[in-house]
Design a protein that fits this description.
Elements: H1 7-15, E1 50-53, H2 54-57, E2 77-80, E3 88-91, E4 94-95, E5 100-103, E6 106-107, E7 128-134, E8 150-155, E9 168-178, E10 183-193, E11 197-208, E12 221-223, E13 231-233, E14 243-256, E15 259-273, E16 281-298, E17 301-317, E18 325-326, E19 332-333, E20 337-353, E21 358-375, E22 389-409, E23 414-428, H3 440-448, E24 453-469, E25 472-483, H4 487-491, H5 497-501, E26 511-513, E27 521-533, E28 540-559, E29 570-594, E30 598-613, E31 627-636, E32 639-648, E33 666-676, E34 680-687, E35 728-736
Parallel strand pairs: 5-8, 26-29
Antiparallel strand pairs: 1-7, 2-3, 3-4, 5-6, 7-8, 9-10, 9-35, 10-11, 11-14, 12-13, 14-15, 15-16, 16-17, 17-20, 18-19, 20-21, 21-22, 22-23, 23-24, 24-25, 25-27, 27-28, 28-29, 29-30, 30-31, 31-32, 32-33, 33-34, 34-35
Domain TonB-dependent receptor-like beta-barrel: 260-688
Family: Belongs to the TonB-dependent receptor family.
Membrane topology: Multi-pass membrane protein
Length: 737
């Protein structure tokens, strides 16, 4: 594979835009060094469960290609495995659409019946500059239409030249290699800027073969009648786990007089991404993004506005490891599935300083989302012809939100925040049809029904913080959050077995059909955080957060007719009631310094969550068992070395209706070291250094090979959990110029 990134050349090319530009010589007091929206309060409410900047994330990038994995050390956050760049964050037991995820201010939506392109898959880890995670209590100003936490992701901010500096050119280039899966990739960025105008390019490309588990977890087999011909799949090979991804963006920013305008265009292409826990694979994904924003500082406060438009063209079929040629004569070529999504959004927010004590935030958001999901007819197949199958036709999901939030600093010890948000969600879908008349028993009543739905949702947040001294902080409160169902939850309509098999956004191997009459989910959350720390030297700190959530109308599942044990089943989404509770514990402590040997720091994160469907008494699906991440870090000069232990308990409490697979407990040892001069950086590490075999608790069911068009096809029988990756050595190099 050839990579053609030439970052220095790119920087010089961008610099030609500034040819002849004369450095500004205005009064230095009139030159704005940086434009950042800041509330006039010393510490914003609520405390985020986790924050991370570019320096903190630098050591992780060589070891991963999935931006969601940047969250793996945040208390209360776990990851539901999917494709190589498409993991789904789970916050306090709530996953996927239940969490609000924003990338550079954009509310991105997964345009896929199997949620193969979640929001975080649209940004490469090399382009992530900052992360903020709210795990329990989410301010209404952060977002709505969700009942879980919030993840706010920011890409690299525009850089400008200092006053009198003239033309600034800067950039970065890097590459990585990982042994397990033969994963490799490169990234590059380049900026040219003067004091007021900045132009930046960011790009990356990466790919990987199938990864291997630490030992065989199934028999080795010869895969026949696949798209690429016959080939051997080893017993330790996690089939359908390969991927290739490419991301590019070009940004322009203009600042002056307390104002910042930014415009960014982005493009992503994923030519293939296998999914070992899905019946289908991604065979193409193309996304274009146009994102414009404004930030202004005024005497009364700050104003922020954003408008964006994103389109996704997504395709699925059976990739290299799954049976492609069906029929007795092996002349039925797969099952192509196509999706076309369009997402347009506008947001406006004002932070108004009412007094030294009071800050008022007001704003609104509008989102217009359109989705078409169709399956083209397949030659030589009576079941899949002669017409196009419309899974969702002209799906519409529009949001209209307004909010108000009051933050008050009553004294140096007491702060409060109260907010209310109204979310109106309007949904509709057009007429549908199957491949032929055998599907009309579902299509006819669906087409005759009134499919327009309007949900009026209310969100509330109320919390307070008490800081008695510099060594302790206490924060607690209540939130009411609402989420309307997705288009797939409401409008997937066919109970045909093959059609249901292709609708699964949960990675559990079952087949699903939606329910047009689903009600919005409403979550009531109580949370309290105790934060003790060394006030002056930041030598140690410990944070404990217990929480409790009750969810009305939780979207769960029920058997379509009857369910059988020890197999995949056909399920229908259904409203239930649920409750979740848990505890997050995190801390760090300086362990001392030794002359000539540097400084040592210990870090730890422990998370526990319990989830139950209170309507049926069953356990909720995909609940992470008790887990811990313990780290010993050593710093000496430019060197940073880390020893990390990941400990996970057995998952014995599982969803019965889904026949969720139980997993055993395990422990992993990870080793890494880095040398960073700020000019260049070298990373070397070993993940799963002891090559321990383990099944991922949130990895879903393994269906990465064989006859996956059918629910219980040969070659991928029920009962195998997707295993984690065996030992992997990695190395990364990045250079700044």
């Amino acid at each position: 594979m050839q990579h053609h990134f030439r970052p220095r050349a790119a920087a010089l090319a961008i610099a030609t835009l500034f040819a002849g530009t004369t450095p500004a010589h205005a009064d230095p007091d009139q030159v704005m060094e940086e434009v950042v929206v800041r509330a006039p309060k010393p510490v914003p409410l609520p405390m985020a469960a986790g924050t991370s900047n570019a320096d903190a994330m630098a050591g992780k990038r060589a070891a991963l290609s999935d931006s969601a994995q940047l969250l793996n050390d945040v208390p209360g956050v776990s990851l539901s495995a999917a494709g190589g760049v498409s993991s789904l964050p789970v916050i306090h037991g709530l996953a996927d659409d239940r969490n609000r995820i924003k990338v550079d201010g954009m509310d991105l939506v997964s345009a896929c019946a199997n949620h193969m392109n979640p929001p975080l898959s649209y940004i490469d880890p090399s382009n992530v500059e900052n992360l903020k995670i709210y795990s329990s209590l989410v301010p209404v100003s952060v977002g709505g239409d969700s009942i879980g936490g919030a993840i706010i992701v920011g890409s690299k901010a525009p850089r400008f030249a200092d006053a009198g500096e003239g033309l600034l050119t800067t950039g970065e280039a890097g590459a990585f290699y990982r042994s397990n899966g033969n994963a490799h990739g490169v990234h590059a960025s380049a900026t040219a800027a003067n004091e007021r105008l900045s132009v930046t390019y960011n790009g990356s490309t990466e790919q990987s073969d199938n990864y291997k588990a630490a030992q065989a977890f199934k028999p080795g087999t010869l895969a026949t009648w696949t798209k690429t011909g016959d080939h051997w799949i080893g017993g330790d090979e996690v089939a359908s786990s390969s991927y290739k991804a490419e991301n590019h963006s070009l940004g322009i920013a203009l600042r002056g007089g307390g104002h910042l305008f930014d415009l960014k265009a982005g493009f992503q292409h994923i030519p293939y991404q296998g999914f070992p826990n899905q019946h289908m694979d991604m065979t193409d994904n193309r996304s274009t993004q146009l994102n414009a924003g404004y930030t202004g500082e005024f005497a009364w406060g700050t104003l922020a506005a954003r408008v964006y438009h994103e389109t996704t063209r997504h395709k699925m079929d059976f990739a290299d490891d799954k049976l492609y040629w069906y029929g007795a004569a092996h002349n039925v070529a797969g099952m192509p599935m196509d999706t076309d999504g369009s997402n347009t959004g506008v947001s406006l927010k004002a932070d108004i300083t009412l007094s030294e004590r009071d800050l008022l935030r007001v704003g609104g958001e509008v989102q217009r989302y359109r989705l078409d999901d169709w399956w083209a007819p397949v030659a030589n197949s009576k079941m899949m012809s002669p017409d196009t199958f419309w899974n969702i036709n002209n799906g519409k999901r529009d949001r209209f939100d307004v909010f108000a939030e009051w933050e008050a600093e009553w004294s140096p010890k007491w702060l409060t925040l109260m907010g209310i948000r109204s979310d109106t969600v309007k949904m509709d879908a057009g007429n549908v049809q199957g491949y032929n008349t055998m599907y009309s028993n579902n299509a006819a009543p669906f087409n005759a029904s009134n499919r327009k739905k309007t949900d009026d949702n209310i969100n509330l947040t109320a919390l307070a913080r008490y800081t008695p001294n510099a060594r302790q902080t206490y924060e607690g409160g209540y939130s009411r959050k609402s989420r309307s169902p997705s288009l797939y939850e409401r409008y997937t309509w066919s109970t045909n077995g093959m059609a249901m098999t292709m609708n699964n956004w949960l990675n559990d191997g079952n087949g699903y059909v939606g329910d047009m009459n689903l009600k919005p989910e409403v979550a009531h959350t109580l949370s309290f955080t105790m934060d003790w720390h060394d006030g002056a030297d930041n030598d140690w700190g410990m944070k404990i957060t217990p929480y409790y959530t009750r969810v009305d109308n939780y979207v769960d599942a029920q058997c379509l007719t009857t369910c059988a044990p020890n197999r995949f089943n056909y399920l229908k989404v259904a409203n239930r009631d649920a409750r979740l509770y848990g505890l997050d514990l995190s801390g760090f402590a300086g362990l001392g310094k030794l002359a000539g040997f540097g400084a040592f720091t210990g870090k730890g994160v422990i998370s526990y969550v319990d989830g139950k469907d209170t309507s049926t008494g069953e356990r909720l699906y995909n609940i992470m068992p008790l887990n811990a991440r313990l780290t010993l870090e050593h710093r000496m000069g430019n060197w940073t070395t880390t020893i990390e232990e990941v400990l996970v308990s057995a998952k014995s409490q599982v969803s019965q209706v889904r026949n969720e697979i139980k997993t055993a407990g395990y422990g992993l040892l990870n080793l890494r070291t880095s040398y960073d001069t700020k000019r260049y950086r070298v990373d070397i590490g070993i993940d799963n250094a002891l090559n321990k075999f383990y099944a991922q608790p949130l990895g879903g069911a393994y269906i990465g090979q064989g006859t996956t068009m059918s629910l219980n096809g040969a070659g991928a029988p029920y009962g195998i959990a997707v295993p984690g990756m065996g030992r992997s050595l990695y190395a990364g190099l990045s250079v700044k110029f």
